[in-house]
Amino acid sequence: MKMFSLSLFTLAVVLTACGGETAEPGVAASSATASAPTSAAPSEASVRQAPALLRFQGAKLDGTAFDGESLAGRPVVLWFWAPWCPKCQAEGPAVAKAAQKYGDKVAFVGVAGLDKDKAAMERFVSRTGTSGIVQLDDRTGALYKHFKVTSQSSYLIVDPEGGSHSAVGPLDEATLSSLIDKHAL
Question: Transit peptide: is it a keyword of this entry (predicted)?
Fold first, then answer.
């Protein structure tokens, strides 16, 4: 049944291709698990402080574990992309510039999904100049599902209290910066 549900979800995402609207992400009721769990459980204090939206586990493209709760209490931009998406390709340099502009004030996290080829994801990061931000490997679709993302290029901007605002790309650097200023800072 789990495999059937994942197959239906994958089919729905593929059918939306590079366009479409995203559902308002909202806050997930339970945590999602991506391809690699972290080795240490988060402390009870961090679980209380992290909003449900940031209670997820994943793996970076380099294979190291990533705990979404590490983002709690600060502004975050989650960028959902696929390596074969032309909109995503075009946006990469703008995302990299925005990440550089905000520095340590805003955490940027790329979520690479909708493809089973990890090498294609790594080539995408290299081509777009986005290696300076955390890039998560979501070949399973668990993070897209956790954040209720139905298309790429999509963004989820999370404020320090855990409130969120979604946007669908393509976004240039000025538009992305305006959304960050309005919804995260």
Answer: no
